[in-house]
Amino acid sequence: MSDNMMWALVKEKPEVGLWMRRVPVPELGPNDVKIKIKKTAICGTDVHIYQWNDWAQHTIPIGLTVGHEYVGEVVEVGPGVEGFKPGDMVSGEGHITCGKCRNCLEGHKENCKDAKGVGVNRSGAFAEYLVIPSSNVWPCNPAVPEELYSIFDPLGNATHTALSYDMLGEDVLITGAGPIGIMAAAIAKFSGARHVIVTDMNPYRLDLAKKLGATETVNLKERRLSDVMKAVGMTEGFDVGLEMSGNAAGLSDMINNMKHGGKIALLGLLPKDTRVDMETVIFNGLNLRGIYGRKVWDTWYKMTTMIQSGLDIAPVITHRFDIKDFEKGFEVMISGQSGKVVLDWAHIND
How far is the CA of 248 from the CAs of 219, 229, 254, 277, in angstroms? Predict the structure, then answer.
């Protein structure tokens, strides 16, 4: 850092790919914390940026440093910062909120209307150093393995979604066996759900969901959900549904297999033209709730304490690469033959 420059993964061109480039180290403000990045994880959002899909083309400025899933060490704090010091291991909330809107003032930062995303709307964590407001920094408990903190952002999505409704003794349907859906299955089972059934068409990820606690997994190319429900003794439909796929057919399948009065949490980003069978929603008294991000800091506290209490989500990390091999990490993530992929920054300057 002697020349005040650092290595970072940058969206340098409006095409497929990311590029490792030297960029200026971000400046530290009076209420900011500078974090030396140790490990990062690849998110579906990062894949969209890498692949340069339609969303990315309309959202991501060329030259942006990407990434928002990380763990690192504090190296410097601004003069107005209290509670953090150099040497502290930390992660951080990826939504930088305004602090002034009604929801922020009421303590519902997850619903801030002006939130900015780290690695989406401002410089991200796929870099040697990240600077964020101290109010977004989460202190890491040394009882939790460091690597797990690099996936606390997506684990937080899973936790916020899974714990949005009571799970104890309930039958739970999860549509979508991506890493977040898989972690949600683990949380649902840990929280006392009776049956946790995960649907998808990806055998690799369905097997991973089973390893993390799913009671049954359903490859929709091979089995009907109704047959599996009968096999486990369900008679009235699912109590709770967690829509993680972002697939319109998945949501439709869920709505048609809920019990009357069932509760659905929606995390997957569905196409704008998705049609919803509102007649069934209304006549069956279904409750639909949109989920975005994590509750700050309620979700983060629950993640930490659940892991300390025995929740094991470590198997969801299936691949690890040196950051210099980041392209291999993206390749395996894009292939669908992985869970979470972690990138290690320890040897970036070797």
Answer: 17, 21, 10, 11
pLDDT tens per residue, range 226-279: 999 999 999 999 999 999 999 999 999 999 999 999 999 999 999 999 999 999
Contact 140, 232 (CB under 8 A): no
122 pairs with which residues across the strands? 118
CA dist list (Å): 145 to 7, 169, 175: 26, 30, 29
What is the residue whose two structure tokens read 């150093």?
129
Amino acid (one-letter) located at 306: M
The predicted model scores a pTM of 0.97
Q: What is the pLDDT of residues 32-53, one digit of tens each?
A: 999 999 999 999 999 999 999 9
Locus of tokens 């059934």: 197
DSSP assignment string, 35-68: EEEEEEE--HHHHHHHHT-HHHHHHPPTT-B---
Distance CA 332, CA 334 (A): 5
Residue at 135: amino acid letter? S
The set of catalytic residues is 45, 48
**Helix or strand holding residue 303 (H, E):** helix 298-308
- For the record, the structure tokens of 317 come out as 């990390």
Q: What percent of the chain shows pLDDT beyond 70?
A: 99
Residue 42 near residue 119, CB atoms below 8 Å = no
Structure tokens belonging to residue 291:
């989920």
Residue 171 DSSP SS3: strand
Place of tokens 């290690």: 344
Pairing of strands 171-175, 238-243: parallel
Which amino acid makes up residue 336?
A: G
What's the number of CA atoms in the CB half-sphere (13 Å) around residue 157? 24
Instruction: Name the 3-class secondary structure at 204.
Output: helix
